[in-house]
């Protein structure tokens, strides 16, 4: 921004020539302020984005002009955080305190870079009618005052440093004002829908004069046109009575969206979607002309603005966040223009005209219809006798639709259904009721549209290619591309019924196509266009019947014309057609800045074909990561050993345990998962070969590698290279570290960074933690989870109160990774001390009460009495006496033993799947359901310990269940869980022996025949068994002698053999039982009952305390006997 001024245009507002519009007005601005607004002190308020760009130049110009107009004047400047968050009570108070601290008096002139507007949004919206307002948690712009500025300067040169998205954001207000009040200006916007966006995208010319300066009159006219409408509305209605409310067109619904999805979308983007919804509401109410919504939508789209929350760009910004209808209605209910409880919406009648000269009252049901994604249509009990409607005009059914019908009919015929076309009614088909029959073979054709790209490549390069599964019998329209486009353009084409071979002419010998009708192969017109671009000859290529390509992912006809121009190719568009004047491929220009493809895959693919012969082309990719299906070793990658896993294949899901290398990832940045002999990851997991340090280039390479490998989570510093547009299925943990403590929590500096998640600040006082908590309350309303922390010793409170991704230390570490880090135990204890974590009570329900080791086991694993307190066992023969305990708020869980494992089930809300199979529970835990209600859930972890014991003895998963037999000795209280555990290991047959035949029969009958339980009642039955058990589990009570009859049977079953055999004991007192001695004498390996107790205790502990984290088994095992 230089001090050379150019002429400005003045616009009147409220009877005064207040607004000055021009280009490069810095000198005029400072001179005008000093001349007409005399003061001893001038205060310039700006934000941290604008200050580096414009403050030095403004200060220089001010100091240059001050001696002439006000020699004694001083200029002060103050910066605030950028964005909507600065419109807050906190920022307002901070600015007031600063002004008073500088001893400013009543004559002080405040200059806002905003009153000197730097954004298009400010130039056409906020500077007129000047509402000085702040936002509150309950809504936007709810408190403030109206106060007109003395002077407003609009310098269009500011727009040249404005990011493209911010310019588009401001265009929403331009479209809005012309849509409600100026047909000629709206038409001007439509006419310049190509020039303005292209100018904004372009870089400054070599002369240093920005592109906007070259066409400043166009931009000036657009800005002035919008200002005139707003001035017309505001002048007679300065304080927002009725007429001024028209300026809220799009805002009622747009502000509702804003509260829910801010800050992901900008203000103008939200208003654009709001305008379409409110225009659709006007159509629903019958007050808006049919074409107005379509015209409005097209204009917004042409300037890059979204028209729906379902737009791809919007869904990418918001993560697909849904604006729930009822919540929207509540938010709209507190809009400032409402009349009490009556919601008011500006209803568009036509372009440049509203239904009323004010916002109209609209009922909630009508708004619901517009906001809802779906509707429920009820049957009509009384029909209207006669109704006349005028449907929108439409072409007849196109050849393309008929083509799809023909393809469907042909497929149905191949599967035995003969569809016939009506001889009397056009577009009518008769489908017989019949059954599909599978043909001996059915070949699914290749996609003809995708085939056009390799065919076009050989056409340009003079090569040959054969496309299989696509030939002259194909009904796909794009299958005609070879014959109707490539043969006339100069290729040799050979087509069989099921293949197409194309041989391109020598480079530079393509012929133009005077005319080709592409209605039946309409998606291929883009491919044909880039071929036509390099044809030789004076004739143009004309492609017709492609009108619907204007309403695809983008306006494809316009896109081809514009982007071909970047290669030096002349092309033009008609309503339904495109024409291209080809040039020699050696004359193609290098497209400066690449080719923007509008997130349209066909635009990207087509220009990728042209890029093959264009000099140094750079086609902008469409944010797609391509993955190779087959990975091969990459040259130069060092060998790291045999036990490595590399993410490769699609989205990194294909993992091999040997040397598999993704061939497209730089070897220096592969993430290595080194495993031990058991396949367990060691501490080397996630190791990188090169440190990043502060090298952002290497960081970008590493980020891209991580994304290509499809890693689940990636920590991304938000000031480093952005790669989120290509993140695929990876989750981004966005972080920012304010190591110097430059961003205080008490104002909007941090909120301007809040675009995702993880944040650190340097705590300089305890107050910083309280300020951080206020920030957290504001930011927590958004769906993105985040961690907000202060580092340093004074920041410990913030770590204690943080509830997501809190970095912790451990007493065993030699040092802390950051100042103020706490261990998990310290954080939990602190939460308990300040009343934010309630200790839970745990119980044992059993009768009679033996000496249980469960409390010792759990207290050893989790020795924090401020979190879990084990109370003395509860002894009662009546399980209903536990009801009061189960319903208490501090109930954390209970271990249930005999005789209550079955009788407690009616007291519970539900039981787990394994507890249902076993028919008993040994664990009760309280859970909070999705609806917020408290539920008691029963589970059974006996089977975990039972399954654990054989595995300790060396038993592995059985590969052939039908050939694997296990033995259960006794029918004690855990026998049901034993059956479940043995089936989980893979035993297809389970023999059961017991001294009491009645109990034995009851156990066998409690399971279905598929469980294959066999009762062994005698020595003879045991002797006659063909398949002897290789694993046994004893459930015989240790305090009772083994029955003589049972001893006889056992003498036959546990025989010696070549294969290893294991007996697992369930009883743990005494440590060596009679059954264990018997099995050991027969050569079996025995596992004592302490292992089963420790295993089930570990299972219980996971659900009691840690939410699935597995505790150390060795520690648990040592705690059981009190070792």
From TrEMBL:
Q: Where is the 3-dehydroquinate synthase C-terminal domain?
A: 170-317
Q: Which reaction does it catalyse?
A: 3-phosphoshikimate + phosphoenolpyruvate = 5-O-(1-carboxyvinyl)-3-phosphoshikimate + phosphate
What Gene Ontology biological process does one annotation of this record name? chorismate biosynthetic process
In Swiss-Prot or TrEMBL terms, this protein is called: 3-phosphoshikimate 1-carboxyvinyltransferase
UniProt GO MF annotations:
3-dehydroquinate dehydratase activity; 3-phosphoshikimate 1-carboxyvinyltransferase activity; shikimate 3-dehydrogenase (NADP+) activity
- Enzyme class, top EC level, equals transferase
Q: Which GO terms describe its cellular component?
A: cytoplasm
Biochemical pathway: Metabolic intermediate biosynthesis; chorismate biosynthesis; chorismate from D-erythrose 4-phosphate and phosphoenolpyruvate: step 6/7
Pfam families (UniProt xref): DHQ_synthase, DHQS_C, DHquinase_I, EPSP_synthase, Shikimate_dh_N
Which InterPro entries does the UniProt entry name for this protein? Answer: Aldolase_TIM (IPR013785), Aminoacid_DH-like_N_sf (IPR046346), DHQS/DOIS_N (IPR030960), DHQS_C (IPR056179), DHquinase_I (IPR001381), Enolpyruvate_Tfrase_dom (IPR001986), Enolpyruvate_Tfrase_sf (IPR036968), EPSP_synthase_CS (IPR023193)
Query: Known EC number(s)?
Result: 2.5.1.19
Membrane-spanning intervals of the chain: none
Q: Which UniProt keywords are listed?
A: Amino-acid biosynthesis, Aromatic amino acid biosynthesis, Transferase
Tell me what organism the protein belongs to.
Choiromyces venosus 120613-1
Q: Does the keyword Transferase apply?
A: yes
């Amino acid at each position: 921004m230089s001090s050379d001024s150019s002429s400005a245009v003045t616009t009147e507002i409220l009877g005064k020539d207040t607004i000055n519009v021009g280009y490069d007005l810095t000198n005029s601005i400072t001179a005008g302020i000093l001349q007409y607004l005399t003061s001893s002190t001038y205060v310039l308020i700006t934000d941290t984005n604008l200050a580096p760009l414009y403050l030095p130049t403004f200060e220089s110009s001010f100091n240059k002009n001050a001696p002439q107009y006000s020699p004694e004047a001083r200029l002060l400047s103050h910066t605030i955080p950028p964005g909507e968050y600065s419109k807050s009570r906190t920022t307002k108070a901070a600015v007031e305190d600063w002004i008073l601290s500088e001893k400013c008096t009543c004559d002080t002139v405040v200059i806002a870079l905003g009153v000197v507007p730097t954004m298009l949004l400010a130039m056409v919206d906020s500077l007129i009618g000047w509402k000085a307002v702040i936002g509150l948690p309950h809504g936007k712009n709810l408190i403030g005052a109206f106060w007109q500025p003395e002077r407003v300067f609009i310098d269009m040169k500011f727009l040249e440093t404005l990011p493209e998205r911010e310019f588009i954001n401001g265009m929403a207000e331009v479209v809005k004002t012309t849509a409600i009040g100026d047909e000629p200006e709206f038409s001007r916007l439509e006419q310049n829908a190509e020039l303005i966006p292209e100018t904004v995208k372009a870089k400054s010319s070599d002369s240093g004069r920005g592109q906007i300066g070259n066409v400043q009159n166009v931009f000036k006219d657009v800005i002035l046109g919008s200002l005139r409408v707003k001035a017309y509305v505001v002048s007679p209605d300065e304080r927002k009575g009725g007429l001024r409310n028209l300026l809220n067109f799009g805002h009622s619904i747009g502000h509702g969206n804003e509260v829910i999805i801010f800050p992901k979308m900008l203000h103008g983007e939200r208003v654009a979607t709001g305008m379409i919804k409110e225009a659709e509401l006007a159509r629903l109410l019958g007050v808006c002309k049919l074409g107005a919504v379509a015209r409005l939508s097209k204009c917004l789209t042409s300037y890059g603005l979204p028209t729906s929350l379902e737009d791809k760009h919007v869904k990418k910004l918001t993560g697909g966040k849904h604006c729930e209808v009822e919540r929207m209605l509540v938010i709209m209910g507190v809009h400032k223009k409402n009349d009490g409880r009556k919601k008011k919406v500006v209803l568009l009648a036509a372009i440049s005209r509203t239904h009323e000269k004010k916002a109209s009252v609209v009922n909630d049901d009508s708004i619901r219809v517009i906001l809802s994604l779906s509707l429920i249509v009820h049957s009509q009990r009384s029909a209207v006798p006669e109704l006349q409607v005028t449907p929108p005009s439409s072409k007849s059914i196109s050849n393309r639709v008929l083509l799809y019908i023909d393809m469907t009919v042909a497929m149905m015929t191949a599967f035995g259904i003969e569809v016939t076309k009506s001889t009397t009614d056009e577009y009518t088909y008769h489908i017989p009721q019949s059954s599909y029959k599978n043909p001996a073979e059915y070949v699914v054709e290749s996609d003809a549209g995708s085939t056009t790209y390799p065919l076009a490549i050989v056409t340009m390069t003079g090569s040959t290619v054969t496309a299989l599964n696509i030939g002259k019998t194909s009904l796909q329209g794009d299958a005609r591309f070879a014959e109707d486009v490539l043969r006339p353009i100069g290729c040799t084409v050979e087509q069989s019924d099921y293949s197409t071979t194309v041989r391109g002419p020598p480079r530079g010998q393509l012929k133009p196509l005077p005319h080709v009708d592409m209605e039946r192969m309409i998606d291929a017109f883009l491919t044909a266009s880039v071929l036509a671009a390099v044809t030789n000859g004076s004739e143009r290529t004309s492609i017709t019947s492609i009108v619907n390509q204007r309403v695809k992912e983008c306006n494809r006809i316009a896109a081809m014309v514009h982007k071909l121009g970047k290669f030096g190719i002349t092309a033009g568009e008609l309503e339904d057609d495109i024409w291209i004047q080809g040039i020699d491929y050696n004359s193609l220009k290098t497209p400066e800045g690449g080719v923007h493809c509008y997130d349209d895959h066909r635009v990207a693919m087509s220009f990728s074909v042209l890029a093959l012969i264009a000099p140094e082309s750079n086609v902008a990719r469409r944010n797609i990561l391509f993955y190779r299906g087959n990975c091969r070793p990459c040259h130069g990658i060092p060998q790291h050993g045999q036990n490595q896993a590399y993410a490769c294949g699609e989205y990194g899901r294909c993992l091999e345990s040997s040397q598999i290398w993704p061939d497209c990832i730089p070897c220096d940045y592969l993430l290595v998962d080194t495993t031990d002999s058991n396949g367990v990851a060691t501490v080397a997991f996630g190791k990188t070969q090169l440190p990043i340090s502060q090298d952002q280039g290497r960081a970008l390479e590493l980020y891209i590698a991580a994304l290509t490998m499809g890693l689940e989570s990636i920590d991304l510093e938000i000031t480093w290279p952005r790669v989120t547009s290509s993140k695929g299925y990876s989750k981004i943990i966005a972080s920012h570290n304010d190591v110097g403590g430059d961003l205080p929590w008490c104002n909007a500096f941090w909120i301007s960074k809040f675009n995702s998640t993880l944040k650190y600040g340097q705590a300089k006082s305890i107050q910083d933690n309280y300020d951080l908590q206020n920030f957290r309350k504001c930011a927590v309303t958004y769906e993105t989870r985040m961690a907000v922390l202060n580092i340093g010793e004074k920041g410990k409170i913030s770590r204690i109160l943080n509830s997501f991704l809190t970095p912790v230390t451990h007493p065993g570490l030699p040092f802390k990774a950051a100042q103020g880090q706490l261990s998990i135990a310290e954080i939990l204890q602190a939460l308990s001390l300040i009343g934010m974590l309630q200790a839970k009570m745990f119980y044992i329900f059993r009768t009679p009460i033996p000496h249980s080791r469960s409390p010792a086991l759990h207290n050893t694993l989790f020795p924090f009495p401020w979190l879990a307190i084990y109370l003395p066992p509860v002894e009662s023969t009546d399980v209903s006496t536990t009801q009061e305990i189960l319903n208490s708020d501090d109930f954390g869980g209970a271990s249930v033993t005999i005789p209550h494992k079955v009788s407690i089930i009616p007291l519970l809300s539900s039981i787990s799947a394994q507890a249902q199979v076993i028919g008993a529970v040994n664990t009760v835990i309280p859970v909070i359901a999705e609806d917020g209600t408290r539920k008691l859930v029963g589970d059974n972890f006996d089977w975990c310990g039972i399954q654990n014991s054989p595995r300790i003895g060396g038993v592995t998963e059985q590969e052939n269940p039908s050939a694997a037999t296990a033995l259960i000795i006794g029918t004690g209280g855990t026998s049901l869980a034993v059956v479940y555990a043995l089936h989980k290991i893979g035993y297809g047959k389970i023999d059961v022996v017991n001294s009491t035949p009645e109990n034995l029969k009851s156990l066998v009958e409690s399971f279905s025949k598929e469980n294959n339980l066999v009762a062994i009642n005698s020595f003879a039955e045991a002797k006659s068994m063909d398949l002897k058990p290789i694993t046994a589990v004893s459930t015989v009570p240790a305090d009772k002698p083994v029955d003589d009859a049972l001893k006889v049977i056992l003498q036959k079953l546990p025989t010696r053999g070549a294969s290893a055999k294991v007996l697992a004991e369930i009883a743990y007192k005494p440590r060596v039982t009679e059954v264990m001695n018997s099995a050991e004498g027969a050569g079996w390996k025995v596992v004592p009952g302490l292992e089963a107790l420790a295993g089930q205790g570990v299972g219980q502990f996971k659900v009691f305390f840690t939410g699935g984290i597995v505790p150390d088994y060795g520690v648990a095992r040592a705690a059981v006997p009190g070792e």
